[in-house]
Amino acid sequence: MKNFKNVFLVLLLAVAGLLPACRSTGPVAQNQAVPPELLQLSYLHEIVRYLYRWQLHESEVENILDQKQFIFWVCRMPEELDAGDHSQFAEIMLPQLDMSVDVKKADYTIAETGTVVKSPNFRITRMTRGGLPKRAPRGCAVVTEDMLAMRDYLYSTRNQRDYPDAALLEHLREAVREEAMQEGIVDTNLPAGEQIIDNAPLSPVANEEWVYWEAGDKLFYVASDIDLANPVVWKYQTLSVRIFDLEQQVVVSHEEAPSSSFFLTRYQMSRALYNCMVLGERTIVLRNPPTNAVPATKK
Prior knowledge:
22% of the residues lie in helices and 29% in strands. The chain has helices at residues 41-54, 58-62, 147-156, 166-182, 231-236, 266-278; strands at residues 23-24, 69-77, 88-94, 99-105, 107-110, 115-118, 123-129, 141-146, 193-199, 208-213, 218-224, 239-245, 250-251, 264-265, 281-287, 296-298. β10 and β11 (218-224) form a beta hairpin. The radius of gyration is 20 Å and the shape is globular.
């Protein structure tokens, strides 16, 4: 795989579901600049479920449970795009958590091949803590959900899991293997037999996957600008792959290595391992037999 982007997206945690359309308040809620799909509670629930599963601390959840409403500020983000690029960008702010999420809906053409790339929905590109204004910015839609309903939904979906299908799992395995070979991380010294790989559940609002290789004690992070289920990703290898050695690349705080995405904090590592090993899907790969078998057992 060539020209991988040096991207590390800080991952998040939990609420999903197919609930009715959003309940909105405030005069800016009807702003036509905000794509209607971003105002649906079913979509916003997935955003919160992703944050709940990957990022939120216990104290952050506990501090807002006594409030009556869970509030979202949804804003369309203008972007200067290349000719023929019709991608859309937006920011979803969660003022009670002082947190924001940038999302993108890709819609462009790969110039070299003429292949049209369209995302099925808006996907997370970045999460940021702090710096939110005291009021919803002008032009943003304000969406509210009953706090008890949000709490109940987070609880009921805390173990919800969506795993890669067989084809996507094989693509992920090959991408991880190729990157490991490029970085010189080859299991040539391991004995023949079972190799255990744990895949974290997928999120419908993020083009990313975490994989844990137990024998090598390494975490692999795979991300793309395009939906991972899209064959274009694997045909043109539009991927970013990062490998984290859990013996060498784990710190207590990023302050130990400012401005570096080379390290995970112990908190980030524990979240990734929980999602891979507890909520994830285990794949057993037989090393060195005539044919590599990949039986998957869902936990």
